[in-house]
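Slide 14.
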Amino acid sequence: MAVVGNIDFLARDVLYDKQKPYRMKFVPPSGFPWSNIKTNIQPQKIEDIRGREKDFSLGANGFSLETLDSGMTYEDFDDEDKIVQTYLPNVAKLLRSMLNPSRIQIFEFLVRKRGESFPLATETAYEDHQPTTAAHIGL
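Slide 15: predicted structure.
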């Protein structure tokens, strides 16, 4: 079954020819904009692919669904050292087996945990990073 959902995409803008899109996660100095991101919300068909995981490949679809023996429990994702020492090496091992790269370098990671009221905005900041609603999550 498919549903239609709205996903934010980075809008095309001449500003980005000279300035990289950014969004600050802190209050900037007075008068400085916290973001220069302009979005274009597009309706997208979202399908449930459970049971069809093997139908998708990097070559044909640009993504694949893989099983990872993470060596982690849910609670372990609160422990940055455990993520670095256990989870990330297991991710690298999986990528190495799939892609046979000469080198793997994981620059950073971010753990996201959905707040109870997400995606509704509240007066209180969420305790954890939330799931993204944007296609361009690297911003």
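Speaker note: The first strand starts at residue 2 and ends at 10.
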